[in-house]
Amino acid sequence: MTYDRNMIDLPEPPSRHERQQQTRAALIEAGREVFAELGYHAANLDRIARQAGFSKGAVYSNFSGKAALFLAVMDANLQSVWSQPWGTPETFRKDVPPPEVADDKEEAELEELIRGFALATLEFIAVAARDEELSGELQQRIQDVVDQYTEVAKTARIEHDELSPEQIGTLLTALDQGSGLLLLGGTDMLDDALWSVGMQRLLSPSHDDGEKFNSSAATGNEAENHIQERLMKALRRKP
Predict the structure, then answer these.
(1) What long-range pairs does 144-148 form, CB within 8 A, spacing at least 24?
(2) Which of 31, 149, 171, 220 is the most exposed place for a label (fewest CB within 10 A)?
(3) Confidence band (pLDDT; 50, 70, 90) for 2?
(4) In angstroms, how far is the first alpha carbon of the chain from the final one?
């Protein structure tokens, strides 16, 4: 029996561009894990390449060096966070978007990955502060976060607000990033409920009907639900 090759629906082999994108994505994922485990300084490209299943040459075919790879991991993390329609306070406080976890062990591993990469980011910031080129790259990414929060502020903006959306976006970024620094330092003075109320105060000092939002009387869940509703509305409006 013979078969007509035209009748067999075989998948097209990946193009050279697709293979390169797959390699790049694998290196970014491996980089995220190695940076989180070892920190920025201790991580090396040999280890990252091995973990991704490639040679060190594959790294240099896609990135100019360790700093460029780290920035690519940051970009991937931020893109994942802002492209999802499920924005919550927890979403904006993590460097890695939370996938569905099956059990407590996987959740603990995820939390360790998040914390590890955040600590590596502090190392990278110290390096970038002493390097003019890297400092510019880092400032660009910070501005991207400010711009995203500015879009959120525009959606939640109340009439006659004395602060512009750009100013509110800057303050939201400062609260978000500053709270992360406090958490990394081991303090428990800023819990989720207080963080949520702070974000809500910046986004909308009053309800739509003009009634003041009493943060001292509101529970953490009430504040969190209010801010979550506004964040999700803003994110869903993004193209």
Answers:
(1) 144/78, 145/78, 145/173, 145/176, 145/177, 146/170, 146/173, 148/82
(2) 220
(3) low
(4) 52
Q: Is residue 53 in some structural domain? A: no
Query: Range of 229's domain?
Result: 66-236
Rounded Cα distance between 7 and 19, Å, is 27
Residue 9 belongs to a domain: no
- Number of structural domains found in the chain: 1
Coil, helix or strand at residue 8: coil
Is residue 92 in a domain?
yes
* The model's pTM: 0.72
pLDDT of 221 over the 60 cut: no
Dump pLDDT digits (tens) for 153-172. Answer: 888 777 777 888 899 999 99
**Chain-centroid distance, C-alpha 23:** 21
pLDDT beyond 90 at 73 = yes
